[in-house]
């Protein structure tokens, strides 16, 4: 059992739609751990590129933006807030124009390199839970706890379909399924930090589990490695 006061990293990787973000947020809230939304960081870079009319192929200009970019993550009254160069962009980074580009931006080598450096700096000296596609393999290969979540493409598409339906978003199941399959292939075949399970990660297929059941299983595994405050 690790010392209670020791800083640590809980790395949660896996396919899109497996519940990584919700799981990480719940663990952070329950145990007073810092949750780092790596996806939001890439969204901030994407928004900065849009604001400055920088194209995906303009690597020199992207590098210039990265040299100046200031990304800040805070929690205000229980809500995660994101600031880009001093501006609150919490809602802007979730808009369609960012959604359409962020995946491509995250595959640009210089962007990935800079964001990984920033993630490591922000995590230094803290108890962190972080989710993504390469946290346990690339960002924090020495993380104290590594979790890898998977689920069938059909189940993940169905979850997204039901979530959209609750929000009044009408997207056909077939379109969502095709997007899930495309993203899987894109993430796993990427030349930049591809999605894969770390050799020492605990793998959990969430297809037939509820979110609550997944959380219970993962918490038990976490507690085998580190001691959590209640």
List keywords for this structure.
5-stranded parallel beta sheet; 2 domains; Rossmann fold; disordered N terminus; 49% helix; 3-stranded antiparallel beta sheet; globular
Written description of the protein model:
The strands form two sheets. The protein has a five-stranded parallel beta sheet. A three-stranded antiparallel beta sheet has the order 3-4-5, covered by helices on one side. The longest helix has 17 residues. The protein is built from nine helices and eight strands. The protein is globular. Helix 1 packs across helix 9. Helix content is 49%, strand content 17%. It folds into two domains: 132 residues, 3-Layer(aba) Sandwich (Rossmann fold), CATH 3.40.50; 87 residues, Rossmann fold (3-Layer(aba) Sandwich), CATH 3.40.50.300. The protein is α/β, with parallel strands linked by helices and 230 residues long.
- What structural class do you assign from the helix and strand content? alpha/beta
From the structure provided, what is the oligomeric state, counting identical versus distinct chains? single chain
Gross CATH architecture of the largest domain:
3-Layer(aba) Sandwich
Beta-strand content bin = 15-25%
Going by CATH, the homologous superfamily of the largest domain would be P-loop containing nucleotide triphosphate hydrolases
Shape type: globular
Radius of gyration: 18 Å
State the major sheet.
5 strands, parallel
The CATH topology annotation of the largest domain reads as Rossmann fold
Parts with pLDDT < 50 across at least 5 consecutive residues:
1-5
Strand sequence of the main sheet, in spatial order? Answer: 2-6-1-7-8
Name the CATH class of the largest domain. Answer: Alpha Beta
Mean pLDDT across residues: 89
Helix content: 40-55%
User: How many β-strands, per DSSP?
Assistant: 8
Tally of structural domains: 2
Spell the H/E element sequence. Answer: EHEHHEEEHHEHEHHEH
Number of helices: 9
The separation of the N and C termini measures 16 Å
């Amino acid at each position: 059992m690790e010392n209670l006061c020791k800083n640590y990293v809980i790395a949660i990787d896996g396919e899109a739609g497996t519940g990584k973000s919700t799981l990480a947020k719940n663990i952070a809230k329950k145990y007073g751990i810092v949750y780092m939304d790596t996806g939001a960081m890439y969204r901030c870079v994407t928004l900065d590129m849009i604001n400055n009319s920088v194209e995906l192929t303009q690597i020199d200009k992207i590098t210039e933006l990265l040299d100046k970019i200031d990304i800040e993550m805070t929690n205000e009254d229980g809500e995660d807030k994101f600031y880009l160069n001093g501006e609150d962009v919490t809602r802007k980074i979730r808009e369609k124009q960012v959604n359409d580009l962020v995946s491509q931006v995250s595959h640009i080598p210089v962007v990935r390199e800079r964001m990984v450096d920033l993630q490591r700096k922000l995590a230094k000296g803290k108890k962190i839970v972080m989710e993504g596609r390469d946290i346990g393999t690339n960002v924090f290969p020495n993380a104290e706890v590594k979790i890898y979540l998977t689920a069938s493409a059909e189940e993940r598409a169905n979850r997204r379909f039901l979530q959209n339906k609750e929000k009044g978003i009408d997207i056909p199941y077939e379109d969502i399924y095709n997007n899930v399959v495309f993203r899987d292939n894109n993430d796993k075949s990427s030349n930049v930090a591809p999605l894969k399970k770390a050799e020492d990660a605990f793998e959990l297929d969430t297809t037939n589990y509820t979110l609550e059941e997944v959380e219970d299983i993962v918490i038990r595994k976490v507690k085998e490695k580190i001691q959590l405050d209640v």
